[in-house]
Design goal:
The chain has 416 residues and is an alpha+beta fold. The chain folds into three domains: 5-121, Butyryl-Coa Dehydrogenase, subunit A, domain 1, CATH 1.10.540.10; 128-230, Butyryl-CoA Dehydrogenase, subunit A, domain 2, CATH 2.40.110.10; 252-414, Butyryl-CoA Dehydrogenase, subunit A, domain 3. The protein has 13 helices and eight strands. It has helices at 5-8, 25-38, 40-46, 51-59, 78-91, 93-106, 114-121, 257-281, 296-328, 335-361, 373-385, 392-403, 410-414, and strands at residues 128-130, 138-142, 145-155, 163-171, 187-193, 198-200, 214-224, 228-230. Strand 2 and strand 3 (145-155) form a beta hairpin. Helix 8 (257-281) runs antiparallel to helix 11 (373-385). The protein is globular, with a radius of gyration of 22 Å.
Length: 416
């Protein structure tokens, strides 16, 4: 049965209680880390987060970290978000990936119709997942809303999501594109209950196996207009000042959030790989009879890797702290500053993965064994680096263009 405005007028589900504003989210993540690490083998095998781990994450309100406080969320600052995701990734990359993606998606609650936001994000177990649209996705205007059809890829966390997002171009009832004042076709993001989509399990991969990044298929589903929002607010670097929010977190372009979460995951993976090496290789002796702790080449490589991880983290946090400070003081972060910040973020991601490579290269043949968790850190790191937001050519090109006084266009601009 299609949702109606009358149904939405019924009392919405309520959150199980507001999140304490004094929560130390990284500390909470450290408390959860042993449970996350213990589930890593099962996550790898079943390609999903197990129910007991999900229960623990919901009990700790981890999926509510970036929700507005008015909806019982944590409204965490960006540096806290970065540190929290990194901490979880040190234990398991798929869990961190699901958490950072869902946290970014949950920020749309700040821009939704308030009643719809309470209905979607009220329950403790609320999780929103989405992915980019395949060609052919469309939303056709009908009385009260839209009829939506299409396929959306790489919807990380969709296996445990309660709601799904579908970004689509708008069409009039006669099939003609709905255009904005600038002549461009308008888009909206539709939020629908998870049971309104069919999931295609195409995510059988070598790394980040537990993210459940499936394809979603929707066929002629009715979406009431109050459960949609302008896609410009959730896709491509458009600031949200027009949404009437004055909290610092919700003044950031949405395009900032996902790269931060993914890069934080990669830095956490690298730190986890280093810890794993130290734990599993501490007493190792090479075939030549040299103890690892006495091999200068191994020690040098590990030292380089540790320095690269620390440098990646420092560079990312410096950018985050600077942008947060500017925004909090009411100073707009310029496109050039954002472009340079994205360049820093991409460079940090690549440095972190190079550190994982250095660590893995010194672990010997035993690291290839599936029983050795180090190989999973290596696979997860390279899977994460394959994400489109980490393509250095476009980002570096765009950042340098802005410094030369030119405005990047097209795909280069949309990546900032």
């Amino acid at each position: 049965m299609c949702a109606t405005r009358a149904e939405a007028a019924a009392p919405p589900p309520q959150a199980d209680g507001p999140v304490d504003e004094t929560v130390d989210w990284p500390a909470r993540a450290r408390t959860l880390a042993p449970l996350v690490a213990a589930a890593a083998d099962e996550i790898e095998r079943t390609r999903r987060l197990p129910p007991d781990l999900l229960d623990a994450l919901h009990e700790a309100a981890m999926f509510r970290m970036m929700l507005p406080r008015s909806l019982g969320g944590g409204e965490a600052d960006l540096a806290t978000f970065v540190r929290t995701i990194e901490t979880i990734a040190m234990a398991d990359a798929s869990t961190a990936w699901c958490l950072c993606q869902a946290s970014g998606c949950s920020m749309v609650a700040a821009y939704l119709d308030p009643q719809a936001a309470r209905h979607i994000f009220g329950p403790r177990s609320a999780v929103l997942a989405w992915g980019p649209a395949s060609p052919g996705a469309r939303a056709v205007a009908v009385p009260g809303g839209f009829r939506v059809t299409g396929r959306w890829n790489f919807a990380s966390g969709s296996r445990h999501a309660t709601w799904l997002g579908a970004h689509a171009p708008l069409f009039e009832a006669d099939g003609s594109p709905r255009l904005g004042p600038d002549g461009r076709q308008l888009q909206r993001t539709m939020l629908l209950p998870a049971d309104q989509a069919r999931m295609h399990d195409v995510w059988n991969v070598v790394g980040l196996r537990g993210t459940g990044s499936k394809d979603l298929v929707v066929e002629n589903a009715f979406l009431p207009e109050y459960r949609t929002l302008r896609a410009e607010r959730v896709m491509g670097g458009v600031a949200w000042q027009d949404a009437g929010r004055d909290e610092t977190l919700y003044k950031f372009p949405f395009s900032c959030i996902f790269p931060l979460g993914i890069t934080s995951s990669l830095i956490g993976i690298a730190e986890g790989a280093l810890n794993c090496y130290i734990e599993t290789q501490r007493e190792r002796v090479t075939v030549s009879g040299t103890a690892i702790k006495q091999d200068p080449y191994v020690l040098s490589n590990l030292g380089d890797a540790a320095a690269e991880i620390a440098a990646s983290r420092a560079a990312l946090l410096e950018t985050v702290d600077r942008f947060w400070d500017l925004t909090e003081r009411g100073i707009e972060v310029t496109f050039e500053q954002r472009a340079i910040g994205r360049r820093t973020q991409v460079a940090a991601a690549w440095r972190a993965v190079r550190a994982v490579d250095e660590i893995f290269s010194r672990a010997g043949g035993g690291a290839l064994q599936l029983s050795n968790p180090l190989q999973r850190f290596w696979r997860d790191a390279h899977a994460g680096l394959s994400h489109a937001i980490h393509v250095p050519g476009s980002i570096f090109h765009a950042a340098t263009l802005t410094q030369l006084g030119e405005e990047p266009q097209g795909m280069m601009r949309s990546m900032i």
